[in-house]
Amino acid sequence: MTAVFLFAGIAYSAEPPAEVPPASSSQPAGAQAIQGTVLKADSGQYVIRDSFGKEVRLQVNSNTHIEGEPKVGDAVEAKVMEGGVASSIKKR
Question: Is residue 20 a part of any domain in this protein?
Fold first, then answer.
């Protein structure tokens, strides 16, 4: 009588899953930092050309902290929440 044994192999990843770093006090959870140049500034929206050459539209509201009165041509750093709402825009 011949016995046949089958073994099922299970692969395990050697590295643990990547963790998202906690938000710092200067950047709210879920915010992205964008640096670029102001192309357009209206009462409810800024258009910025980011460091990759992409135009980014930022919505501003009463909760947006704007520092330094940025205008067209100024270099800025913005913290942007999900949905394109800027939590802050700072003239650099």
Answer: no
Q: For residue 19, give the DSSP letter.
A: -
Confidence grade of residue 20 (pLDDT, cut at 50, 70, 90)? very low
Residue 57: give its domain's CATH number: 2.40.50.320
The DSSP 8-state label assigned to residue 17 in this structure reads P
When divided into structural domains, the chain yields a total of 1
- For residue 82, what is the DSSP state? T
Q: Which domain holds residue 38?
A: 32-91
Taking the whole predicted model, whether its pTM rises above 0.90 is answered as no
- The predicted-structure confidence for 58-87, as pLDDT tens digits, reads as follows 999 999 999 999 999 999 999 999 889 999
